[in-house]
Amino acid sequence: MSADAAAALIHHGDNVGMSGFTGAGHPKALPQALAHRIEKANQDGGHFRIGVWTGASTAPELDGALAKVGGIEMRLPYQSDPTCRDRINKGEMDYIDIHLSHVAQFVWFGFLGKLSVAVVEVAGILEDGRLIPSSSVGNNKTWLDQADKVILEVNSMQPLGLEGMHDIYYGTDLPPNRKPIPMTGPGDRIGTPYLHVDLDKVVAVVETSQPDRNTTFTPPDENSQRIAGHILDFLGHEVKKGRLPANLLPLQSGVGNIANAVLSGLNQGPFNNLTGYTEVLQDGMLEMLKSGKLSMASSTALSLSVEGMKEFLDNLDFYRQRIVLRPQEISNHPELVRRLGIISMNGMIEADIYGNVNSTHLMGTRIMNGIGGSGDFARNAYLSIFMTPSVAKDGRISCIVPMASHVDHTEHDVQVLVTEQGLADLRGLAPRQRATVVIERCAHPDYRPALRDYVARAESAARNGHGGMQTPHILDEALSWHSRFEREGRMLAQD
């Protein structure tokens, strides 16, 4: 049926599980038709809002369209749309920021309420009802299993050559009947290439032909290249020390230009026969597969530039043999991250002197995107690395601060911090030792004197009975840099 007719099957108050992960594999036609329906209903004096659950971020024709008409009551687990972000920060949309590995099991447990409708993009439907997944898997298996009604959007823009690239594992039982996941290597295939659905639940099939949201990456700037260089030197040092094998361990890389710069550096580096076990496959890993530096990559989604997508489609047979796309409950599974010994590399907004990382909130209160899968990997990784330029807003913000204004990853989960200034290896260091290393190796020179002064005065106050020496802080000042920025537009006081 048409997208408009299918949209009429979704009602106010429904929780709708949409496919999509980092702009790949999301339904395109139905969300826009639903947005038009919501807009008209609300203009006519109605009140029409739904819950939107996805794998991760989607695109303007889904998140943007529904947010623009005020159609989203609750959003989870990750978003990156500017209209969504604005409505969340204005209090006009509720948002639950969840570890990506938790979403599927929370739905199975019944923690999030009833899933009314699943809207899932597929590349094709076989005669026996099996579904050929598209360019992302995300939570689609769970949406199809748990929803009362299913709407399939068949996108002819998704190549049927994707068939065989996916590995959908159906062996995750609920406690107390869970069994070990039978995977010991990042390239293991433990499931089926297809998604399954109860055909009695399928209430509509919508045809469309629209591309994914292709991510735009800028060439690595000087800071990104310096960050990449520090990480490459560190990994080489770990190999020399015998703490990593010559071909490293499976790589996980977050989204963005810095992450792509690190992968580009690895592509030019001395390490060979590498593997990837990540949640998003970007241009950098595609280039490594093409060059042979990377032998295979496991992910739950593609997130490619226009050029990267062309390369992928032009050489689909080559990449089908080297890429495995899995449900995000497997790609981000903490047990597998620990078992495989992942090297985890993710971006952050800020870190404090003791190693606590904020990866989601600007100035402690305004959501940027969400935690995504970084927590799934950081706590369980063999090496947990977070990276950022040392300053933002033309130097008016320091990304190394006395106290993080919001904490997503505690000091217990963070092993390495990297900025263009240098790399701080925090393993085996007590808090006050970490503070010295973070300030001297990661903070921008303009902010180091103020950070040193803060630590010295905090320790002096603790020695005089005002606080403890384990993690010295001056509570009246710990967040003063952030509050000064809110007042004056800069973190440091003027001389």
Please tally the β strands and state the result: 25
Q: Please tell me what the overall shape is.
A: globular
Biggest sheet, in brief? 8 strands, mixed
Helix content: 25-40%
Q: Note the beta-strand portion.
A: 15-25%
So how many helices? Answer: 17
What is the residue-mean pLDDT, rounded to a whole number? 96
Q: N-to-C terminal Cα separation, in Å? A: 67 Å
Provide the gyration radius in Å: 23 Å
Low-confidence stretches: none
Q: Name the structural class.
A: alpha/beta
Protein topology:
Layout: H1 3-7, E1 15-18, H2 29-43, E2 50-53, H3 60-68, E3 72-76, H4 82-89, E4 94-95, H5 100-109, E5 117-125, E6 131-133, H6 140-146, E7 149-155, E8 202-208, H7 222-240, E9 251-253, H8 257-268, E10 274-277, E11 280-281, H9 283-291, E12 294-299, E13 301-302, H10 306-314, H11 316-320, E14 323-325, H12 328-331, H13 334-340, E15 343-347, E16 350-352, E17 357-358, E18 361-362, E19 366-367, H14 374-378, E20 383-387, E21 391-392, E22 397-398, E23 400-401, E24 416-419, E25 422-425, H15 431-442, H16 448-463, H17 480-488
Parallel strand pairs: 1-2, 1-5, 2-3, 3-4, 5-7, 7-8, 9-15, 10-12, 11-13, 12-14, 15-20, 16-23, 20-24
Antiparallel strand pairs: 5-6, 16-17, 18-19, 21-22, 24-25
Helix pairs in contact: 2-3, 3-4, 7-8, 8-9, 15-16
